[in-house]
Amino acid sequence: SIAILATPSTVSSGAYIKEFNKLSPKMKIVQHAPKDWTGFVEANKVQQKEAQKSVKKHIDLILEEQPDTQAILLACTHFPALFHAYAGRVPVPIFAQGGIIAGKLRSYLERHPEFASNIEQKGDHLYLTSGDPDHVSIAAEVFMGYKPEFQKRVS
Fold it and tell me: Which segments of 1-155 does DSSP mark as H helices, in order?
């Protein structure tokens, strides 16, 4: 059995449940949607007591609700930033979906070299947001270790 921690919209979409059911239809899955976690990360408040209490609360709820949980999947790119303080203190492995997805994409592209000619590989970065570029740049620094400059784009 596994537990999934994701944003409310991801949980309500049922996307992870559908995909896990394809792999193992009998797998027990519990999902939690901590509403405040994305905000903690974007406001660079991951070390504050309120954020850490929320992480502990959700882990405790998961393990109480599903004591046989074998792994926890962090199904939002923001959530790993909250778990540095919990490394080694949670009794089950915790996986971040960002690294898993990146590895799967790399593997796919290696198996399909025909796409290499369509991918620009010169290493430039362009950071776009539909939100406030200054706010997003500050929040992105939590993940990247430097402050990238975002441009506003609305699609």
Answer: 8-13, 15-23, 37-42, 49-65, 97-111, 133-144
Q: How far is CA 15 from CA 6, 8, 12, 24, 74, in A?
A: 11, 12, 8, 14, 14
Q: Say how far apart CA 139 and CA 128 lie, in whole Å.
A: 13
Residue 54 in tokens: 């929320």
Backbone CA torsion sign across 91, 48, 30, 102: negative
User: Half-sphere exposure (CA, 13 Å, Cβ side) for 152?
Assistant: 5
Q: Is the pLDDT of residue 62 over 90?
A: yes
- Give the rounded distance of the alpha carbon of 90 from its chain centre: 17
Could you report how far apart the first and last alpha carbons of the chain are, in Å?
A: 39
Cα-Cα-Cα-Cα torsion 121, 123, 124, 130, nearest 10 degrees, comes to 80
Q: pLDDT digit string (tens) for 23-43?
A: 999 999 999 999 899 888 888
Q: Give me the pLDDT at residue 21, please.
A: 93
Distance of CA 105 to the CA centre of its chain: 16
- Residues contacting residue 130 through CB under 8 Å, at least 6 positions apart: 152, 153, 154, 155
Q: In Å, what is the CA distance from 116 to each residue of 24, 99, 125?
A: 33, 21, 18
